[in-house]
Specification:
Elements (H helix, E strand, L loop, with lengths): L2 H17 L6 E2 L3 E2 L1 H12 L3 H4 L11 H7 L2 H10 L13 H5 L1 H13 L8 E2 L8
Parallel strand pairs: 2-3
Antiparallel strand pairs: 1-2
Helix pairs in contact: 2-7, 4-7
Length: about 130
């Protein structure tokens, strides 16, 4: 094989490995990767729990545990960005923190919805077990 074929093959393999990167990584139900931890921190800083509940199970706003079982990532991004003003959810498009971390927020909430992140409060993967 010539050099160009080897390069193309190497790039294809690298691209496939990148595409298979998991959305989130969780150990012991509450220890997460750094990006998912950013999503949790974004959740807390935006005070989403005021409407969606401290465990994302809903209050005046719907359960995100249930919603993310059927909502695509694109629908999630659109909903967060534009809000659902008629239902009381403000648009977050002007929040730099939320918009800069929307992928991380989605990963955190998807992990909760998938049942892999079993506690609403998460810690870094390198932390000792949570005692709460």
């Amino acid at each position: 094989m010539n050099r160009k074929v080897w390069m193309a093959l190497a790039l294809a393999v690298a691209g496939a490995a990148w595409a298979e990167k998991p959305l989130y990584t969780v150990v012991d139900g509450n220890k997460v990767d750094p990006d998912t931890l950013k999503g949790f921190r974004t959740w807390r800083q935006a005070a989403c729990d005021r409407c969606h509940g401290p465990n994302q199970e809903g209050m005046v706003g719907p359960s995100l545990i249930d919603s993310l079982k059927v909502m695509t990532k694109e629908q999630f991004v659109t909903t967060v960005t534009n809000g659902r003003v008629e239902k009381g959810m403000p648009p977050w498009s002007t929040s730099k923190n939320v918009m800069d971390n929307i992928d991380h927020l989605y990963a955190y909430l998807k992990g909760r919805s998938d049942g892999k992140i079993t506690k609403a409060h998460v810690v870094p993967m390198d932390s000792p077990a949570e005692t709460k």
